[in-house]
Backbone:
């Protein structure tokens, strides 16, 4: 219990110190006639989303593992939303939200889990992250194929003969099953080794 309380005090002390340093830096910049908020806004409003995400990612490394996994996942999601908003803003492509959500929900969460699991050598966490990223990638590709066709032609891409698209759907589903089998390879052996 004392180790947990010590970790919390250390995290709070780091967070408080970081906020004080940021505040002092902002005041110093204002004294020199530089408004940090105005500069961030000039760089692009999505930075107001990206910066808190980066702060959450930094917070992930403060508590002892695996207590920082929540910060890693949240930071990955918030940063990914900011980066996607920045790309959409720069390219005027907000309609891509129709399928880009897959990169945020399962994709960014999986990336956060994978990176945190790899850094902390938590193989189960990294494996779950890879699985989520594979699912997100498949959802994104299918969504991009469907919606980009709708955006470009104004019609659903199923005008093609059903004899062509249902085998493609089976192949995509088979690829997902295969990826899941490859990712899960080794789990039964670890359980057997642990029980013996």
Residues:
């Amino acid at each position: 219990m004392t180790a947990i309380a010590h970790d919390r005090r250390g995290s709070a002390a780091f967070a408080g110190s970081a906020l004080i340093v940021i505040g002092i830096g902002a005041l110093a910049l204002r004294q020199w006639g530089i408004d940090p908020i105005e500069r961030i806004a000039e760089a692009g409003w999505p930075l107001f989303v990206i910066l808190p995400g980066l702060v959450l990612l930094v917070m992930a490394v403060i508590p002892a593992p695996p207590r920082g996994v929540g910060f890693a996942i949240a930071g990955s999601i918030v940063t990914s939303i900011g980066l996607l908003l920045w790309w959409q803003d720069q390219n005027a492509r907000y309609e891509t939200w129709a399928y880009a959500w897959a990169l945020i929900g399962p994709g960014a969460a999986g990336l956060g889990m994978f990176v945190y699991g790899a850094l902390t050598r938590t193989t189960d966490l990294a494996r779950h992250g890879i699985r989520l990223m594979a699912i997100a990638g498949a959802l994104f590709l299918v969504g991009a194929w469907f919606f980009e066709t709708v955006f470009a032609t104004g019609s659903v891409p199923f005008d093609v003969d059903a004899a062509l698209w249902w085998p493609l759907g089976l192949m995509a589903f088979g690829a997902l099953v295969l990826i899941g089998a490859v990712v899960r390879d080794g789990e039964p052996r670890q359980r057997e080794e642990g029980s013996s």
User: Anything to note?
Assistant: The two ends are 32 Å apart (CA to CA). The mean pLDDT is 79. Residues 44-185 form one domain. The longest helix spans residues 123-153.
